[in-house]
Amino acid sequence: MSLDFVHETRPGRVVFAVGARHRLPEEVDRLGLRRLLVVSTPEQAALAAELTAPLGGRVAEPHPHATMHVPVAVAERAVARAREAGADGCLAVGGGSAIGLAKAVAKETGLPIVAVPTTYAGSEMTPIWGLTGADRKTTGRDPRVLPSTVVYDPELTVTLPPGLSVTSGMNALAHSAEALYAPDCSPVTALAAADSVRALAAALPRVAADPGDLEARSDALYGAWLAGTALGSTTMSLHHKLCHILGGTFDLPHAQTHTAVLPHVLALNLPAAPRARAALEHALGTENPAAHLFRLARDLGAEMSLKAMGMPEDGVETVVTQAFAAPYANPRPVTRTDLRRLLGDALAGTAPA
Ligand code: NAD
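Structure tokens for the assembled complex are given below, as produced in the milestone run.
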């Protein structure tokens, strides 16, 4: 097949090293920022304070109020604080929740973001924002929310508990897997996605065995960076659609939901996506990527049953209805029967068919 693609290179600077957090002052100065709103979750307020202490007067205000899925009220409060404090930038320390709140501020104010990620979710590499209203989560793309500088320091991930490290890594792997069969996957994105799968799958067992193993942490974070890039460059398919619905409808935990759903979606989609299948087989060193990822996650202690996470048995029909309510990209057409079977398996936590 001859090549036919569009590849857009996004702006943004990435600094990656064990100890890279010590370079924050020079990175902030490089952007000319003088009054930062420092965003984190309440649990990571102390870490944010420690990281920003060397910034001295360049911190206008700490704002440790990020929560999962960026509720509208939480976003409005952060935007108001940024304006009242005369902030000229947002520094986000943490996972997708902290970075998501900084993005909500950037979307309204245009302020540049410096991100210091501490999970593998990958939001720091995407122009995607999300906001949760009373009954549903809305997402969109806006180049203004793409962080200007991302400082990756694997040392900051050693405190991520082994269980969350595994599921967060699977969340990253899901970005790369769906990027590989995305309608807008370019050859460069495919290379990044495939190497991210290889790096994450090899690193996660080492991270789970020894959360302080900095080489393993470095490999996993490298995989997460590439996965975030792939997510930001492509259109996601059935897997991300289902996880979005499941998270929004039943308030299921983000990374864990991705972990339980991914093997089932791949079992359904890969027969219709030969290039993605070949790339995953090669990256994982297996002839059955779906079964391999199910075993990998389960053997590292991940919960594979959506029911155990809190999804009600009669929730399957709700998800099926929502999934059919709006179109989405997918390498193959999906019937209601397919979806019922897939969700039933993920609900029970059985291996993919
Ligand atoms: P999270 O940011 O909610 O973090 C989970 C918990 O772990 C939090 O309590 C946090 O304080 C804690 N934590 C984070 N890093 C830690 C560390 N190193 N040590 C100890 N504790 C740590 O979880 P997440 O999975 O990173 O992000 C999920 C959110 O991000 C979801 O809302 C999801 O929709 C969003 N997301 C958005 C994008 C995007 O492109 N916009 C991409 C991926 C995820």
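The chain has 14 helices and eight strands. The first strand starts at residue 13 and ends at 16. Further analysis is deferred to the final report.
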